[in-house]
Write a structure and sequence with these properties.
3-stranded antiparallel beta sheet
Length: 93
């Protein structure tokens, strides 16, 4: 069986988990500074860990509203202001 790159946790992913084991929940900006990456570099890793069922959003604070011109129409976009991440410690019995 061949493992895909996304199926394997690398050193940075393990460091993210160590950080969250020590103190949680944290926002991605805090996780990024403790791991030594930028928030934009850590975001895909957090989403990948969420997809694997390892992390979950603990709480989402406020929404930011944006208006963007897309194909000559103004679109309203809502984006979370802050997402606090936590380990997904569900019972697997």
């Amino acid at each position: 069986m061949k493992l895909r790159k996304k199926d394997v946790l690398d050193g940075i992913d393990r460091e993210i988990l160590r950080v969250l084991l020590k103190r949680r929940p944290l926002v991605s900006r805090q996780i990024a500074s403790k791991v030594g990456l930028t928030p934009s570099a850590i975001s895909p890793r957090l989403m990948n860990l969420k997809k694997k069922g390892i992390l979950k959003p603990a709480k989402i604070l406020g929404l930011r509203n944006f208006k963007r011109n897309f194909k000559n129409k103004i679109q309203k976009i809502k984006s979370p202001r802050s997402i606090y991440w936590d380990l997904d410690l569900k019972n697997e019995n």
